[in-house]
Amino acid sequence: MMTSVDTDLIRVLADPLRLRIVTLLATETLCTTHLVEETGARQTNLSNHLRVLREAGVVETEPCGRYTYYRLRPDVIASLASWFADLAESARTAADNKRACP
Q: Is 61 helix (H, G, I), strand (E, B) or coil?
């Protein structure tokens, strides 16, 4: 049975830089400085993308002195992956279903 997914979350992850950030955070917790080095993005641009990811619930923050570290929330990614798996299964079982034209 297919569950619902927040379409805003898909929109959030559709941006190439945000997807790159998520990919980097999947391997380690990083601060903005690390992410600037890894992506080559300007700090202000990166901060805006991190804000969007935080507001969407994809990442969480951990203050550390004058730095803020970001970590991926795996439960959000897992729920999205589950939704896509359900969608794929639905497509497999519906492959032979064809609606007749009027």
A: strand
At 100, is the pLDDT very low, low, confident or very high (cuts 50, 70, 90)?
Answer: confident
Residue 59: Cβ-neighbour burial (10 angstroms; 0-12, 13-18, 19+) = buried
CA angle 95, 100, 102 (to 5 degrees): 155
- pTM here is 0.83
**Helices marked H in 28-73 — which ranges?**
32-39, 43-55
Nearest to 22 by CA among 70, 81, 85: 70
Cα–Cα distance, 102 to 99 (Å, whole number):
9
Q: Taken in order 32, 34, 38, 43, is the CA torsion positive or negative?
A: positive
Please determine, for residue 99, whether its predicted confidence score (pLDDT) is greater than 50: yes
